[in-house]
């Protein structure tokens, strides 16, 4: 976080002032493994890992707990600036300022592309659309060349990082006028008026 402010007197009539602030926040948050596939995919009978040799319903996470150490990255960056002037005219004090701020918020989440996962179950996975993904435990001990082995290129084809980038901007301009109107035995009565524009 950083912050700075300053003022500059312009004769006796007014004072210019400004503020600037910047903040950056980054968080790595531990998360569960890849989310469960919720559309009840069917593992075809010809999938090399399907020992049942009939279509089998798959319920679970595509990679089990293999990516349990995955983390979700959150970053937030905020800028804010103010430029204004203030002064007095007789018994009245005035203040006019403009403010602009922006925030960029980013989240990266590991997840599966459902269409590519389903294609891999059916032997149309990987960069060339010709490889199987074996969702069963036999893949854990298989070696390259074994038909039940899961090629990393097939996994990379359906497992990815989904990103969300939210951007917020706020611009305001405001003017205020304050002053004492009259005095009574109970104290001074004052008035304040102002207006603000926001976008």
Task: Note down, in words, how this protein is organized.
The chain has 199 residues and is mostly beta strands. The chain has helices at residues 114-121, 152-158; strands at residues 2-10, 14-30, 36-37, 42-43, 56-57, 60-61, 71-89, 92-112, 159-184, 187-198. A hairpin with a 2-residue loop joins strand 7 and strand 8 (92-112). Helix 1 (114-121) runs antiparallel to helix 2. The protein is rod-shaped. The model has no long low-confidence stretch (mean pLDDT 91).
Topology:
Layout: E1 2-10, E2 14-30, E3 36-37, E4 42-43, E5 56-57, E6 60-61, E7 71-89, E8 92-112, H1 114-121, H2 152-158, E9 159-184, E10 187-198
Helix pairs in contact: 1-2
Number of DSSP-assigned strands: 10
**By helix and strand content, what is the structural category?**
mainly beta
Report the principal-axis shape: rod-shaped
Classify the helix fraction into a percent range. Answer: under 10%
Low-confidence stretches: none
Q: What is the string of SSEs from the N terminus onward? A: EEEEEEEEHHEE
Query: How would a crystallographer describe the biggest sheet?
Result: 6 strands, antiparallel
Q: Span between N and C termini?
A: 25 Å
